[in-house]
Design brief:
A 3-stranded mixed sheet has the order 3-5-4, with helices on both faces. The protein has one domain (23-264). The chain is mostly helical. The protein contains 11 helices and 5 strands. 40% of the residues are buried. Helix 4 (121-136) crosses helix 8 (190-206), helix 5 crosses helix 7 and helix 8 runs parallel beside helix 11 (239-264). Bound molecules: zinc ion (ZN). Residues 130, 134, 188, 193, 196, 236 line the site of zinc ion.
């Protein structure tokens, strides 16, 4: 009887949290659960990024860095309202991975290996916009929130678990971005990848970059795929499926691009 009452309290608490803690993704307008505090997630992300900068080799290649800062600045201006509490930073790590990531708080990293498939400024914009879209769509918050709900359902310490947001945010950020000796790589499910593709294409277009470049980069990835052990392929699954979905977004993105070009002149 006592347990039953406890179970009812926990489930109604979880239900209330689900009802009252919703947010909406930009561009796609999807309703999502959000149980974590923005400032906590941002604080932990910033700490993880600092740790990476201290541990990994940073590239100071002037050409790459100039392009990275220019593109990063333009996109960060475009997403100003979608990424709260951001202190933007764009860093190139000197490592062979064909990969990139962005963390809450505006911390963006790419690896020099990315330049194997990224040749132009538009192409770099497509990668940065995609990664920043994961942040603005609060995929990190969603993953941590789901872990909290799972924990609440699985343990008798559920209620306590729901309240210890700080520790969950710490372990959540570290595990989501898999921060380690070789850098950080975030693996998202296919739905979140497609959502970031769509939002990213709109962002880059609004920032004045040709969204067709996103398709060029994805085509190169599909070509490179198969037999490669690079983390990009395991963390960015089903490239050909994503490519199809991206073609579906292209028309709308091109319209945004045309509007942005008009605005510039
Ligand atoms: Zn992604």
């Amino acid at each position: 009887m006592k347990f039953k009452l406890y179970a009812t309290v926990v489930s109604s608490l979880v239900f209330t949290l689900l009802l009252t803690n919703c947010s909406t993704t930009p561009v796609t307008g999807r309703k999502q659960m959000n149980l974590v505090s923005e400032s906590e997630v941002v604080r932990m992300s910033m700490a993880s990024f600092e740790q990476m900068k201290a541990q990994l080799a940073i590239s100071y290649d002037p050409e790459y860095n100039e392009m990275m800062q220019r593109v990063g600045h333009k996109i960060s201006q475009e997403v100003f309202w979608d990424v709260p509490l951001a202190e933007w930073e764009f860093v190139i790590f000197d490592a062979p991975q064909v990969n990139a990531f962005a963390m809450p708080g505006g911390k963006v990293g790419i690896y020099t290996g990315l330049f194997q498939i990224v040749k132009t400024e538009d192409e770099l914009a497509s990668v940065l916009a995609h990664e920043i879209a994961h942040v603005s769509a609060r995929h990190t918050h969603e993953r941590i929130s789901q872990a909290m709900i799972a924990e609440a359902g699985n343990t008798t310490l559920g209620v306590v678990g729901l309240m210890s947001v700080g520790s969950l945010a710490t372990s959540g950020i570290m595990s989501i971005y898999n921060v380690g000796a070789t850098g950080a790589v975030a693996a998202w499910d296919r739905k979140k990848e497609s959502e970031a593709d769509e939002i990213g294409m709109i962002y880059m277009a609004r920032a004045g970059y040709n969204p067709e470049a996103a398709i060029t980069v994805m085509e190169r990835m599909v070509q490179l795929d198969g037999g490669s052990s690079d983390p990009w392929y395991s963390t960015h699954p089903s490239s050909s499926e994503r490519l199809d979905a991206m073609h579906g977004v292209l028309e709308e993105a091109v319209e945004e691009y045309e509007k942005a070009k008009e605005f510039q002149f």
